[in-house]
Design goal:
The chain is an alpha/beta fold. It has helices at about 55-65, 85-90, 110-120, 125-135, 150-165, 180-200, 210-215, 235-240, 255-265, 285-290, 310-315, 320-325, and strands at about 15-30, 30-40, 45-50, 70-75, 80, 95, 170-175, 200-205, 220-225, 225-230, 245-250, 270, 275-280, 300-305. α6 (about 180-200) links the parallel β7 (about 170-175) and β8. The protein is elongated and about 75 Å long. The structure holds adenosine-5'-triphosphate. Adenosine-5'-triphosphate binds near residues 54, 55 and 59.
Length: about 325
Protein backbone atom coordinates (compact mmCIF):
# COMPACT_ATOMS: atom_id res chain seq x y z
CA UNK A 1 0.00 0.00 0.00
CA UNK A 2 1.27 3.48 -0.78
CA UNK A 3 0.62 6.43 1.43
CA UNK A 4 1.49 9.73 -0.11
CA UNK A 5 3.43 12.31 1.83
CA UNK A 6 1.18 15.10 2.96
CA UNK A 7 2.08 18.73 2.41
CA UNK A 8 3.65 20.71 5.22
CA UNK A 9 0.37 21.93 6.71
CA UNK A 10 1.86 24.52 9.05
CA UNK A 11 4.25 26.05 6.50
CA UNK A 12 1.42 28.19 5.17
CA UNK A 13 0.00 29.08 8.58
CA UNK A 14 2.04 32.28 8.99
CA UNK A 15 3.00 31.33 12.59
CA UNK A 16 6.60 32.19 13.51
CA UNK A 17 8.72 29.13 12.90
CA UNK A 18 10.99 27.85 15.66
CA UNK A 19 12.76 25.50 13.25
CA UNK A 20 12.96 25.62 9.47
CA UNK A 21 14.88 23.03 7.51
CA UNK A 22 15.24 22.91 3.72
CA UNK A 23 17.00 20.28 1.63
CA UNK A 24 18.96 18.69 4.49
CA UNK A 25 21.41 16.01 3.35
CA UNK A 26 23.77 13.90 5.43
CA UNK A 27 25.82 10.83 4.55
CA UNK A 28 28.26 8.83 6.63
CA UNK A 29 30.75 7.53 4.07
CA UNK A 30 28.73 5.73 1.40
CA UNK A 31 25.63 5.57 3.56
CA UNK A 32 23.06 8.26 2.74
CA UNK A 33 21.16 8.88 5.98
CA UNK A 34 19.26 12.10 5.18
CA UNK A 35 18.34 12.62 1.55
CA UNK A 36 16.60 15.98 1.37
CA UNK A 37 14.66 16.74 4.56
CA UNK A 38 12.27 19.72 4.81
CA UNK A 39 10.68 20.69 8.12
CA UNK A 40 8.77 23.71 9.46
CA UNK A 41 7.99 23.70 13.15
CA UNK A 42 5.91 26.58 14.55
CA UNK A 43 6.91 28.18 17.84
CA UNK A 44 5.21 26.83 20.94
CA UNK A 45 4.29 23.52 19.34
CA UNK A 46 5.33 19.92 19.90
CA UNK A 47 6.81 18.20 16.87
CA UNK A 48 7.58 14.50 16.84
CA UNK A 49 9.93 12.70 14.49
CA UNK A 50 9.19 9.00 14.15
CA UNK A 51 11.11 6.41 12.21
CA UNK A 52 12.39 2.85 12.45
CA UNK A 53 15.72 2.13 14.15
CA UNK A 54 18.58 3.66 12.21
CA UNK A 55 16.31 5.96 10.15
CA UNK A 56 18.35 9.00 11.13
CA UNK A 57 16.27 10.63 13.90
CA UNK A 58 19.23 11.20 16.22
CA UNK A 59 21.26 12.47 13.26
CA UNK A 60 18.58 15.12 12.62
CA UNK A 61 18.60 16.12 16.30
CA UNK A 62 22.40 16.26 16.37
CA UNK A 63 22.48 18.45 13.26
CA UNK A 64 19.82 20.84 14.57
CA UNK A 65 21.62 21.00 17.91
CA UNK A 66 24.92 21.92 16.15
CA UNK A 67 26.60 18.67 17.25
CA UNK A 68 26.99 17.18 13.75
CA UNK A 69 27.56 19.26 10.59
CA UNK A 70 25.17 18.65 7.67
CA UNK A 71 26.52 18.00 4.15
CA UNK A 72 24.08 20.50 2.64
CA UNK A 73 20.79 22.24 3.25
CA UNK A 74 19.67 25.29 5.20
CA UNK A 75 18.64 25.21 8.84
CA UNK A 76 17.17 28.09 10.83
CA UNK A 77 16.73 27.57 14.57
CA UNK A 78 14.89 30.34 16.40
CA UNK A 79 15.62 32.53 13.37
CA UNK A 80 19.39 31.86 13.52
CA UNK A 81 21.22 30.27 10.62
CA UNK A 82 23.01 27.14 11.77
CA UNK A 83 25.81 27.65 9.23
CA UNK A 84 26.66 31.22 10.18
CA UNK A 85 25.47 31.56 13.80
CA UNK A 86 25.90 28.21 15.58
CA UNK A 87 26.56 30.02 18.89
CA UNK A 88 23.21 31.80 18.72
CA UNK A 89 21.52 28.47 17.91
CA UNK A 90 23.14 26.87 20.97
CA UNK A 91 21.94 29.80 23.08
CA UNK A 92 18.30 29.13 22.32
CA UNK A 93 18.17 25.34 22.60
CA UNK A 94 18.33 22.63 25.23
CA UNK A 95 18.99 18.98 24.50
CA UNK A 96 17.99 16.06 26.71
CA UNK A 97 17.99 12.32 26.23
CA UNK A 98 20.78 10.40 24.67
CA UNK A 99 23.35 13.10 25.49
CA UNK A 100 22.44 13.32 29.17
CA UNK A 101 24.62 15.69 31.16
CA UNK A 102 23.57 14.40 34.59
CA UNK A 103 26.51 13.69 36.95
CA UNK A 104 25.71 10.73 39.19
CA UNK A 105 28.18 11.72 41.92
CA UNK A 106 26.54 15.11 42.48
CA UNK A 107 23.16 15.74 44.13
CA UNK A 108 20.21 16.89 42.01
CA UNK A 109 20.58 20.38 43.43
CA UNK A 110 24.33 20.49 42.67
CA UNK A 111 23.68 19.33 39.11
CA UNK A 112 21.18 22.15 38.66
CA UNK A 113 23.51 24.74 40.21
CA UNK A 114 26.26 23.59 37.87
CA UNK A 115 23.97 24.07 34.87
CA UNK A 116 23.00 27.55 36.07
CA UNK A 117 26.71 28.32 36.38
CA UNK A 118 27.34 27.10 32.83
CA UNK A 119 24.62 29.47 31.66
CA UNK A 120 26.32 32.28 33.62
CA UNK A 121 23.28 32.94 35.80
CA UNK A 122 24.04 35.21 38.80
CA UNK A 123 24.52 33.17 42.03
CA UNK A 124 21.22 34.19 43.63
CA UNK A 125 19.22 33.52 40.44
CA UNK A 126 21.04 30.22 40.07
CA UNK A 127 19.86 29.09 43.53
CA UNK A 128 16.27 30.23 43.11
CA UNK A 129 16.07 28.65 39.65
CA UNK A 130 17.42 25.35 41.04
CA UNK A 131 14.79 25.33 43.81
CA UNK A 132 12.05 26.25 41.35
CA UNK A 133 13.06 23.41 39.03
CA UNK A 134 13.38 20.84 41.83
CA UNK A 135 9.85 21.72 42.85
CA UNK A 136 8.47 21.73 39.31
CA UNK A 137 9.92 18.26 38.70
CA UNK A 138 8.89 16.77 42.06
CA UNK A 139 12.51 16.43 43.23
CA UNK A 140 12.53 18.77 46.24
CA UNK A 141 12.60 15.94 48.81
CA UNK A 142 15.45 14.13 47.08
CA UNK A 143 17.34 17.25 45.96
CA UNK A 144 20.20 16.67 48.42
CA UNK A 145 20.77 13.01 47.54
CA UNK A 146 23.39 11.84 45.02
CA UNK A 147 21.83 11.21 41.64
CA UNK A 148 23.33 7.71 41.45
CA UNK A 149 20.67 6.67 44.00
CA UNK A 150 17.84 7.92 41.74
CA UNK A 151 15.42 5.74 39.76
CA UNK A 152 15.43 5.96 35.96
CA UNK A 153 12.33 8.16 36.03
CA UNK A 154 13.89 10.59 38.53
CA UNK A 155 17.07 10.83 36.43
CA UNK A 156 15.04 11.66 33.32
CA UNK A 157 13.14 14.33 35.22
CA UNK A 158 16.39 15.83 36.48
CA UNK A 159 17.83 15.69 32.94
CA UNK A 160 14.87 17.70 31.67
CA UNK A 161 15.10 20.09 34.65
CA UNK A 162 18.78 20.68 33.84
CA UNK A 163 17.90 21.48 30.25
CA UNK A 164 15.51 24.13 31.54
CA UNK A 165 18.13 25.79 33.73
CA UNK A 166 19.21 27.84 30.72
CA UNK A 167 15.59 28.80 29.88
CA UNK A 168 15.80 27.46 26.31
CA UNK A 169 13.11 28.41 23.82
CA UNK A 170 13.45 25.13 21.93
CA UNK A 171 13.98 21.76 23.61
CA UNK A 172 15.11 18.58 21.88
CA UNK A 173 13.85 15.48 23.65
CA UNK A 174 15.59 12.47 22.16
CA UNK A 175 13.62 9.41 23.30
CA UNK A 176 12.84 10.96 26.71
CA UNK A 177 10.92 8.00 28.10
CA UNK A 178 12.70 4.99 26.61
CA UNK A 179 13.11 2.36 29.33
CA UNK A 180 10.76 4.04 31.80
CA UNK A 181 7.88 2.14 33.39
CA UNK A 182 4.38 3.19 32.29
CA UNK A 183 3.78 5.35 35.38
CA UNK A 184 7.05 7.28 35.06
CA UNK A 185 6.36 7.69 31.36
CA UNK A 186 2.97 9.24 32.11
CA UNK A 187 4.64 11.55 34.66
CA UNK A 188 7.06 12.73 31.98
CA UNK A 189 4.21 13.30 29.54
CA UNK A 190 2.40 15.46 32.06
CA UNK A 191 5.56 17.46 32.69
CA UNK A 192 6.15 17.99 28.99
CA UNK A 193 2.53 19.10 28.49
CA UNK A 194 2.84 21.52 31.39
CA UNK A 195 6.06 22.96 29.94
CA UNK A 196 4.47 23.63 26.60
CA UNK A 197 1.37 25.09 28.22
CA UNK A 198 3.04 27.26 30.87
CA UNK A 199 6.30 28.27 29.21
CA UNK A 200 5.42 28.24 25.51
CA UNK A 201 8.58 26.34 24.61
CA UNK A 202 8.87 24.44 21.34
CA UNK A 203 9.53 20.74 21.71
CA UNK A 204 11.25 18.56 19.13
CA UNK A 205 10.60 14.99 20.22
CA UNK A 206 11.95 11.73 18.90
CA UNK A 207 10.35 8.62 20.26
CA UNK A 208 9.89 4.91 19.69
CA UNK A 209 6.48 5.08 21.36
CA UNK A 210 3.76 5.91 18.91
CA UNK A 211 1.36 6.49 21.78
CA UNK A 212 3.76 9.16 23.08
CA UNK A 213 3.81 10.99 19.75
CA UNK A 214 0.05 10.66 19.46
CA UNK A 215 -0.52 12.13 22.89
CA UNK A 216 2.03 14.95 22.87
CA UNK A 217 2.67 16.07 19.31
CA UNK A 218 0.84 18.72 17.31
CA UNK A 219 2.66 17.51 14.21
CA UNK A 220 4.21 14.13 13.51
CA UNK A 221 6.65 13.35 10.71
CA UNK A 222 7.74 9.87 9.72
CA UNK A 223 11.34 9.52 8.55
CA UNK A 224 12.19 6.52 6.40
CA UNK A 225 14.74 5.85 3.67
CA UNK A 226 16.32 9.27 4.21
CA UNK A 227 13.12 11.18 3.56
CA UNK A 228 10.03 12.42 5.37
CA UNK A 229 7.45 9.97 4.01
CA UNK A 230 4.42 11.50 5.75
CA UNK A 231 3.61 14.43 7.96
CA UNK A 232 0.53 15.74 9.70
CA UNK A 233 -1.41 15.55 12.93
CA UNK A 234 -1.91 12.11 14.45
CA UNK A 235 -5.49 12.16 13.17
CA UNK A 236 -4.43 13.14 9.64
CA UNK A 237 -1.89 10.34 9.50
CA UNK A 238 -4.37 7.80 10.80
CA UNK A 239 -6.94 8.82 8.23
CA UNK A 240 -4.46 7.89 5.46
CA UNK A 241 -4.36 4.20 6.30
CA UNK A 242 -7.02 1.51 6.22
CA UNK A 243 -8.02 -0.16 9.46
CA UNK A 244 -11.10 1.85 10.50
CA UNK A 245 -14.13 -0.28 11.18
CA UNK A 246 -17.51 -0.28 12.83
CA UNK A 247 -18.36 -2.95 15.39
CA UNK A 248 -22.03 -3.90 15.59
CA UNK A 249 -23.24 -6.10 18.46
CA UNK A 250 -26.49 -8.08 18.28
CA UNK A 251 -28.60 -9.96 20.84
CA UNK A 252 -28.22 -13.35 19.12
CA UNK A 253 -26.91 -15.22 16.07
CA UNK A 254 -30.15 -14.87 14.10
CA UNK A 255 -30.18 -11.08 14.11
CA UNK A 256 -26.41 -11.00 13.57
CA UNK A 257 -26.64 -13.29 10.53
CA UNK A 258 -29.54 -11.33 9.08
CA UNK A 259 -27.47 -8.14 9.21
CA UNK A 260 -24.35 -9.92 7.88
CA UNK A 261 -26.21 -11.17 4.81
CA UNK A 262 -27.39 -7.66 4.00
CA UNK A 263 -23.94 -6.13 4.44
CA UNK A 264 -22.13 -8.46 2.04
CA UNK A 265 -18.78 -10.17 1.97
CA UNK A 266 -16.48 -7.59 3.58
CA UNK A 267 -18.05 -8.22 6.96
CA UNK A 268 -16.26 -10.32 9.59
CA UNK A 269 -18.54 -12.38 11.88
CA UNK A 270 -17.63 -13.07 15.53
CA UNK A 271 -20.29 -15.64 16.56
CA UNK A 272 -18.97 -15.86 20.16
CA UNK A 273 -19.72 -12.23 20.87
CA UNK A 274 -22.59 -11.76 18.34
CA UNK A 275 -20.60 -8.98 16.71
CA UNK A 276 -19.89 -7.92 13.14
CA UNK A 277 -16.81 -5.93 12.08
CA UNK A 278 -17.54 -3.79 9.06
CA UNK A 279 -14.72 -1.87 7.29
CA UNK A 280 -15.51 1.84 7.26
CA UNK A 281 -13.87 5.24 6.95
CA UNK A 282 -16.03 6.12 9.99
CA UNK A 283 -17.45 9.26 8.38
CA UNK A 284 -20.98 10.20 9.47
CA UNK A 285 -22.39 9.54 5.99
CA UNK A 286 -20.90 6.06 5.63
CA UNK A 287 -22.08 5.07 9.11
CA UNK A 288 -25.59 6.37 8.29
CA UNK A 289 -25.59 4.38 5.02
CA UNK A 290 -24.41 1.28 6.84
CA UNK A 291 -27.23 1.45 9.40
CA UNK A 292 -29.78 2.11 6.66
CA UNK A 293 -28.87 -1.23 5.04
CA UNK A 294 -29.77 -3.31 8.10
CA UNK A 295 -32.54 -3.49 10.72
CA UNK A 296 -30.88 -0.89 12.93
CA UNK A 297 -33.19 -1.71 15.84
CA UNK A 298 -31.58 -5.14 16.17
CA UNK A 299 -28.20 -3.58 17.00
CA UNK A 300 -27.66 -3.61 20.77
CA UNK A 301 -24.30 -1.87 20.75
CA UNK A 302 -22.36 0.13 18.25
CA UNK A 303 -18.77 1.44 18.26
CA UNK A 304 -16.27 3.02 15.85
CA UNK A 305 -12.63 1.96 15.72
CA UNK A 306 -10.00 4.13 14.07
CA UNK A 307 -6.59 2.90 12.99
CA UNK A 308 -3.86 3.80 15.47
CA UNK A 309 -0.41 5.20 14.78
CA UNK A 310 0.97 1.66 14.77
CA UNK A 311 -1.12 0.94 11.65
CA UNK A 312 0.27 4.14 10.11
CA UNK A 313 3.85 3.27 10.96
CA UNK A 314 3.47 -0.23 9.58
CA UNK A 315 1.89 1.02 6.35
CA UNK A 316 4.59 3.64 5.83
CA UNK A 317 7.74 1.86 6.88
CA UNK A 318 6.83 -1.82 6.70
CA UNK A 319 7.87 -2.15 10.36
CA UNK A 320 5.96 -2.26 13.61
CA UNK A 321 6.46 0.67 16.00
CA UNK A 322 8.69 0.41 19.09
CA UNK A 323 5.78 -0.19 21.43
CA UNK A 324 4.64 -3.13 19.36
CA UNK A 325 8.08 -4.72 19.46
CA UNK A 326 8.21 -4.84 23.23
N1 LIG B 1 28.97 9.18 13.47
C1 LIG B 1 28.51 8.24 12.66
N2 LIG B 1 29.33 7.57 11.83
C2 LIG B 1 28.88 6.63 10.98
N3 LIG B 1 27.57 6.26 10.89
C3 LIG B 1 26.70 6.87 11.69
C4 LIG B 1 27.11 7.90 12.62
N4 LIG B 1 26.01 8.34 13.28
C5 LIG B 1 24.96 7.63 12.80
N5 LIG B 1 25.37 6.75 11.85
C6 LIG B 1 24.51 5.84 11.08
O1 LIG B 1 23.44 6.59 10.56
C7 LIG B 1 22.23 5.87 10.60
C8 LIG B 1 21.19 6.67 11.36
O2 LIG B 1 21.53 6.70 12.73
P1 LIG B 1 20.66 7.46 13.81
O3 LIG B 1 21.27 7.18 15.14
O4 LIG B 1 20.51 8.88 13.40
O5 LIG B 1 19.27 6.71 13.67
P2 LIG B 1 18.00 6.74 14.63
O6 LIG B 1 16.82 6.89 13.75
O7 LIG B 1 18.19 7.75 15.71
O8 LIG B 1 18.06 5.27 15.22
P3 LIG B 1 17.57 4.68 16.65
O9 LIG B 1 16.07 4.71 16.65
O10 LIG B 1 18.10 3.29 16.59
O11 LIG B 1 18.19 5.52 17.73
C9 LIG B 1 22.56 4.54 11.26
O12 LIG B 1 22.74 3.57 10.25
C10 LIG B 1 23.86 4.81 11.99
O13 LIG B 1 24.63 3.64 12.07
Amino acid sequence: MTVTASRLPHAESGARQAIQVRGLHKSFGEQVVLNGIDLSIPQGSVFSLLGPNGAGKTTVVRILATLTPPDSGTVLVDGNDLATSPGAVRGSIGVTGQFSAVDGFLTAEENLLLMGDLWHLPKRECRSRAQELLELFGLTDTGKKPVMTFSGGMKRRLDLAMTLAGSPRIIFLDEPTTGLDPRSRRNMWELIERLVHDQAVTIFLTTQYLEEADRLADQIAVLDGGRIVAQGTGEQLKSQVPGGHVVLTFADTTTMDAAASRLGENVTRNPDTFTLNVPSDNSASSVRDLLARIEADTVTQFSLHSPDLDDVFLALTGQAGGEAKR
